[in-house]
Backbone:
């Protein structure tokens, strides 16, 4: 029983990374209608920025916010430079653009930092929390707190500020927002920046356990995508719950289902997603949408 | 003038085929090896064109299907000692079945979710290969002693024979898919692309059509993959990472995903560009430089030239044709 609880706990703490990626994907999808397949690669880039700052002797409390800011700028830049020019109704073009960004960012990261995995210094020290036979490492606790803080900040931003209100207005209906005098381009870029900031946290939290390398986030990205489908991509709370569920599920499945484990857990995640989507196409929390012909 | 412009594309095609056939007797066996790879990859790109250009479906996992074709052919040659021709058939059949399995849920999902489904397959394929070492040879893969195809006559070297076989298969495949999309099924596809609801209302069975295209496309990709494996004489998991699937997409979009010649242009680009870069730039950086160039070119194509290189050439040619025919009073209407 203790073993099961420990695995469940580990699964949940892995799940926060998926949840953060899924949240980033959801924010971008709602804003620009693009399934950002490059989200994982953007998180890798941000993790490398944090890594470089840490190596230069910066303290973690400075290096991580620095990476978040750099990454947000890159996100806004990508929107202005590339994404804005593609017709948002053309799903094939947008999906292709997603993998284009993936390919490009992967190339840039590999050229600058090389492909050998590096040890990402744990920004939260190295202590272990023990209670009732269960244990949590400093990395897990720190990651949990960091992701929860960023998600809390995002929730406040989206629901309690004018900034968030405008973001949501543009995401929901660009034409109406334009009539109200909102410049859609700037607000969508802000959405990309916010998403990149959340993605950065996913990268920084995942890097110490996965080992920093350009391919580090491929599997977490797939898990994040599974989470958006499971929770419903239109719901920000849904995708976070989806991420935690995927983390829990794959940890338990990987341990108790023979033949699974490691990267193959992606298979399990998507099997569950397909089963859920079969009964509830918009995901657990998503809203059904109707299309007018 | 009109007649010349009318015949020019056909003449160009004829000249291109004559050049393609005479190449093996003009260049070294080493160069032929790279060109054979181009021909095999071109089949993979054609399969993607069929899917993206003609049925409006995306696949981010075509590289995995290509790899499955390669593994299928190598496995039956290595373990069951099937002849090469039969191994190609096996690869085509296996990939058609895989295509049907992916396509059944895939065509219903469409759009983003199809992209998602196929990218998962592309990402999982190498992982599964590593996980089943007894079957796939794990990291070492499967090798054939001294390549898969041998010249049956003394008049041709192995390299020349391989190239010519691939050229014939490629041309026959182009002829086949061209026929396919220019007939009834092609017009039905055009209707589905333009407006799926309209197409359904005039009696086109949209889902069945898309599924059929998915299966045929997978079969073509499998054929290309099997030939590619035979050219190299080996299959290893690291030949088929996610990036390879994306690179095929680059070739399809950059060449022009509604042109068969564009597919060959695309294949030339993705096979030769990394080689050129590795000669020009020392070290590991070159491969990633090529990858970055692919990304930039692909991005530019999506935004500026959605019909790719072939589309640009076609547009330029038609503009030329218009200027040339303007002076002549009675001209045939451009139907393209």
Residues:
């Amino acid at each position: 029983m203790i073993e099961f609880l420990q695995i469940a706990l580990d699964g949940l703490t892995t799940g926060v990374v998926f949840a953060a990626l899924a949240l980033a994907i959801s924010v971008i999808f709602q804003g620009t209608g693009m399934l950002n397949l490059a989200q994982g690669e953007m998180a890798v880039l941000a993790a490398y920025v944090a890594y470089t700052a840490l190596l230069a002797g910066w303290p973690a409390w400075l290096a991580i916010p620095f990476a978040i800011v750099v990454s947000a700028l890159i996100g806004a830049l990508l929107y202005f430079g590339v994404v804005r020019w593609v017709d948002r109704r053309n799903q094939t073009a947008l999906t292709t653009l997603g993998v284009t960004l993936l390919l490009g960012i992967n190339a840039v990261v590999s050229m600058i930092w090389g492909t050998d995995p590096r040890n990402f210094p744990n920004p939260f020290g190295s202590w272990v929390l023990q209670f009732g036979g269960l244990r949590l490492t400093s990395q897990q606790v720190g990651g949990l707190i960091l992701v929860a803080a960023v998600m809390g900040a995002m929730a406040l931003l989206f629901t309690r500020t004018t900034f968030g209100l405008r973001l949501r207005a543009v995401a929901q209906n660009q034409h109406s927002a334009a009539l109200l005098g909102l410049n859609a381009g700037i607000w969508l870029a802000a959405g990309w920046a916010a998403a990149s900031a959340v993605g950065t946290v996913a990268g920084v939290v995942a890097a110490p356990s996965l080992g920093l390398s350009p391919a580090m986030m491929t599997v977490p990205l797939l898990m994040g995508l599974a989470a958006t489908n499971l929770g419903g991509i239109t719901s920000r709370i849904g995708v976070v719950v989806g991420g935690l569920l995927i983390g829990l599920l794959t940890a338990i499945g990987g341990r108790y289902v023979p033949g699974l484990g490691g990267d193959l857990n992606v298979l399990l995640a998507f099997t569950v997603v397909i089963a859920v989507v079969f009964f509830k196409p918009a995901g657990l929390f998503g809203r059904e949408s109707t299309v007018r012909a | 003038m009109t007649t010349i412009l009318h015949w020019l594309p056909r003449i160009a095609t004829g000249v291109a085929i004559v050049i393609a056939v005479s190449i093996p007797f003009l260049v070294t066996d080493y160069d032929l090896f790279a060109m054979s790879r181009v021909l095999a990859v071109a089949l993979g790109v054609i399969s993607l064109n069929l899917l993206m250009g003609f049925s409006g479906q995306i696949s981010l996992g075509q590289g995995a299907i290509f790899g499955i074709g390669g593994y299928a052919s190598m496995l039956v040659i290595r373990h069951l000692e099937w002849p090469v021709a039969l191994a190609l058939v096996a690869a085509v059949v296996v990939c058609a079945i895989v295509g049907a399995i992916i396509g059944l849920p895939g065509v219903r999902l469409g759009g983003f979710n199809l992209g998602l489904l196929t990218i998962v397959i592309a990402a999982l394929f190498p992982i599964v290969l590593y996980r089943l070492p007894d079957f796939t040879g794990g990291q070492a893969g499967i090798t054939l002693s001294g390549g898969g195809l041998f010249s049956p006559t003394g008049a041709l070297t192995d390299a020349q024979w391989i190239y010519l076989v691939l050229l014939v298969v490629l041309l026959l495949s182009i002829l086949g898919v061209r026929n396919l999309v220019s007939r009834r099924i092609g017009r039905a596809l055009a209707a589905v692309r333009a407006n799926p609801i309209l197409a359904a209302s005039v009696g086109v069975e949209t889902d069945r059509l898309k599924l059929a295209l998915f299966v045929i496309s997978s079969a073509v990709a499998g054929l290309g993959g099997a030939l590619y494996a035979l050219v190299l004489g080996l299959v290893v998991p690291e030949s088929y990472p996610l990036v390879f699937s994306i690179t095929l997409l680059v070739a399809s979009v950059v060449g022009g995903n509604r042109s068969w010649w564009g597919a060959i242009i695309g294949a030339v680009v993705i096979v030769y560009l990394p080689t050129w870069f590795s000669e020009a730039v020392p070290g590991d950086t070159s491969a990633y430089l090529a990858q970055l160039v692919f990304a930039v070119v692909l991005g530019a194509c999506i935004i500026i030239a959605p019909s790719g290189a072939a589309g640009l050439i076609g547009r330029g040619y038609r503009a030329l044709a218009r200027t040339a025919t303007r002076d002549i009073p009675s001209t045939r209407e451009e139907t393209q």
